[in-house]
Amino acid sequence: MNWRQPLCLALCALAATGTAHAAAIDKLQQFLDTTRTLRADFAQTVVARNGRLPQKSSGVMMFWRPDKFRWQIDKPYNQLVVGDGTKISIHDPDLRQVTVRKAGAALGGTPASLLAGERTIDRDFSLREAGERDGLEWLEATPKVADSGFEKVRVGFAGNELRAMELLDNLGQTTTLLFSRVEINPRLAPSLFRFTPPPNTDVIGD
């Protein structure tokens, strides 16, 4: 799947049972209720089903709920994904190519809709508590639609802070995202969530 992809990213939520369940729901609900914009650095590792040498990249992600996000890979190559609420533009400057998709079809049931979408995440995901690991409290979301491209998404919180995501796609590929320098509700310029193809760039898609 290629948005080089794990991205669309970008990203969180879930639920559970008993006391831990209530804590997880409260944590998620607080995140959704209090976070309108977010900026964070990320380090991404992608491991194929066969376990071959992982692919690593890093960059910056931002979102402005609902449905606007920016996913910028800086290393080892440049790639930019921008969602403006109507369409998603995926710019690969090395190929001089932009792929455009309608946001509604592309976002539903994806990790990006967990972070940047509306609060009604239980409409698109089955949610459950996933316990503690590596010092984080994990929650798991399973898309309700069969063609989302992902089998499940796990999200890790330290306290109420978003720290990690794990994405398992339908091909058995696992993507791990670690977040740092997380800023909640920073002032973000609206222009960050608009994309105009550069001159001499091929545009493919909707």
Give the topology, please:
Elements: H1 18-34, E1 37-47, E2 55-64, E3 68-75, E4 79-84, E5 87-92, E6 97-102, H2 103-107, H3 111-116, E7 125-133, E8 136-143, E9 150-158, E10 161-169, E11 174-184, E12 202-205
Parallel strand pairs: 6-12
Antiparallel strand pairs: 1-2, 1-11, 2-3, 3-4, 4-5, 5-6, 7-8, 8-9, 9-10, 10-11
Helix percent reads 10-25%
Radius of gyration from the alpha-carbon trace, in angstroms: 16 Å
What is the H/E string?
HEEEEEEHHEEEEEE
Mean pLDDT: 79
Strand proportion, as a percent range, falls in over 45%
* Distance from first to last alpha carbon: 18 Å
Shape: globular
**Biggest sheet character:** 12 strands, mixed
Spatially, the strands of the biggest sheet line up as 7-8-9-10-11-1-2-3-4-5-6-12
The stretches of 5 or more residues where confidence is low (pLDDT under 50) are 1-22
Q: Number of DSSP helices? A: 3
Number of strands: 12
Structural class: mainly beta
